[in-house]
Write a structure and sequence with these properties.
The protein has about 270 residues and is α/β, with parallel strands linked by helices. The protein has helices at about 45-55, 75-80, 100-105, 120-135, 150-165, 180-195, 210-215, 235, 240-250, 260-265, and strands spanning about 1-10, 20-30, 35-40, 60-65, 70, 80-85, 170-175, 200-205, 220-225, 225-230. The strands form two sheets. It has a six-stranded mixed sheet with strand order 6-7-8-3-9-10, with helices on both faces. A four-stranded antiparallel sheet has the order 2-1-4-5, covered by helices on one side. The protein is globular, with a radius of gyration of 19 Å.
Amino acid sequence: MLELKNIHKAFNRGTINEKKALNGVTITLEDGDFVTIIGGNGAGKSTTLNAVAGVWPVDEGAVIINGQNVTGLSEHRRAKFIGRVFQDPMTGTAATMEIQENLALAARRGQSRGLSWGISRKEREKYHEMLKMLDLGLEDRMTTKVGLLSGGQRQALTLLMATLKKPEILLLDEHTAALDPKTAAKVLELSDKIIAEEHLTAMMVTHNMADAIKHGNRLIMMNDGRIIYDVKGEEKKNLTVDDLLRKFEEVSGSKLNNDRMLLAKD
């Protein structure tokens, strides 16, 4: 479903501030894979997701989605293949529009616009049932402006919008980092449910090592723009956080220096 072949990316090239963000990243995701990605600051986690999404052109390598080479496509042209949820709950929704209007926008992604009623009765019924699945009471607030929702409610809505038209790849970029632990757990539960029910292929960047072990069928650890550990199946299920810390030190030759990750061990 997704292939990254020898991806290289440097920022501020040719200057004293040049930073090599990705150094030959190669990944193959099968249909239905749910991969969690962890690593320290500047490891290349979010940069990898940006490479998939086409936020900027890569310096070297190829991005292939479902057999199609999209390396030369711009971000907006890749959008039809990709659903994405960002760290900031304010990103991904239109605050001044109603919940149902946001869902309608997501449902019409990639379609031509015409003159017709904005949202039909059939669509309202569909959105009501979808929102009911979230178990957040939003199905009874469909005309509420999204800007009035809590961070967790907005993130759950963004997740629903990102998967409304089944994407080839779902990118979750630390999508629970800005939420309190209880709300984060709820959003992760919803993520698991939607990914499983829709049989989505997904990549989730997280700083929480316990979450990286608990969720998904495969775990990738990055450091200095490279993949240094890739584990799946039973081996992943049997991992502990201490195992990951030891593996990081063993492969990278240094101790993990990331307060967010160390504070989120449990």
